[in-house]
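The data layer described in this paper is built around a simple, fixed record for each protein. We quote a single record here, exactly as it is kept in our systems:
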Amino acid sequence: MLNPRALTHAQLAAIVADVQAILWQESRPIPDFPREYGDYWSPAKEWEAETVEEIADVLEAARLHPGRLGRSTCALDGDRRQPTTVGGADPGQPCPSAPQRHS
């Protein structure tokens, strides 16, 4: 899995644009040309289970997915929280930014 910080601004912008299109873009008939379709932004677009799969595909294409099963922990990088794999932080401690579960 690539560290997202290693990507350029242009690469990150392209990934975000792809995810935005998955979440909020849909095809509709063009009013003046009812046999042709155009892409429109729809904040009310319905999401389905496939929506998550499509976003996962975008992240996988950018190599931002885990290649193997491994524990995710948190390490502090200055004042930023950065996910790491096993060995970076105390695995017994939750990530500082993660919501706490109450039993």
Observations:
- The helical segments are 9-24, 49-61.
